[in-house]
Design goal:
It is a single chain. By secondary structure, this protein is of the alpha/beta class. Helix content is 38%, strand content 19%. The strands form two sheets. Strands 2-1-3-6-7 form a five-stranded parallel sheet, with helices on both faces. Strands 4-5 form a two-stranded antiparallel sheet. The relative contact order is 0.19.
């Protein structure tokens, strides 16, 4: 049975740099024999978390929307690839909402540190920002979004297979070959 990859597009731009980075990652995963399911968060019906904390007790969200499908796909995958642009040194609202809604599913709250429910899984992070390198990192733009996404997956118990930043995308519509090579190296 082939291993499964969940590829998540967290950008409203289906033809933007982030979407193209994700396409390259999906291509590499398929080339390695993975069964890939791709979702676009901007096409999903996901209500905002209301902070009821029921999911932390039951492992399921009380809201009935597309989150049930997303959580099943995530829990059934071996690798999750999340592609999201930088919005004010953070992730876009649908990605933050995804993290909020999945909290009680991917981890269990304890007195000390959350108990992860996704051990053995891997993740890859893809991001882009308008600020050119190295300023995107020094100013905290790309570093902020990577830190935010990384924290979610690490706390869920997953291991990173790569964190790739494409900086300076203000007038760019293609993915630089240097960034493509970084994506390819993650699948070796």
């Amino acid at each position: 049975m082939p291993k499964k990859v969940l590829a998540i597009l967290g950008s409203p731009h289906k033809d933007g740099v982030i979407a193209k980075m994700l396409e390259h990652a999906v291509h590499m995963a398929e080339k390695k024999g993975y069964d890939v399911t791709m979702i676009d968060l901007y096409e999903k019906n996901m209500e905002y978390c209301n902070g009821c904390m029921v999911c932390r007790k039951t492992g399921k969200c009380v809201k009935k929307d597309d989150m049930q499908e997303i959580s099943e796909l995530l829990m059934g995958s071996d690798i999750v690839i999340l592609a999201a642009p930088v919005y004010w040194a953070n992730v876009p609202a649908p990605v933050k909402n995804l993290f909020d809604r999945l909290a009680g599913i991917v981890m269990e709250e304890t007195i000390a540190f959350p108990k992860p429910h996704c051990k053995g899984k891997k993740y890859m992070l893809l991001t882009s920002c308008h600020t050119p390198a190295p300023f995107s990192w020094f100013a905290g733009q790309s570093r902020g979004v990577i830190r935010n996404m990384d924290e979610f997956f690490k706390t869920a118990g997953m291991k990173s297979m790569g964190k790739i930043v494409c900086a300076g995308t203000m007038q760019r519509w293609t993915v630089p070959s240097k960034v493509i090579r970084k994506i390819e190296r993650c699948f070796r």
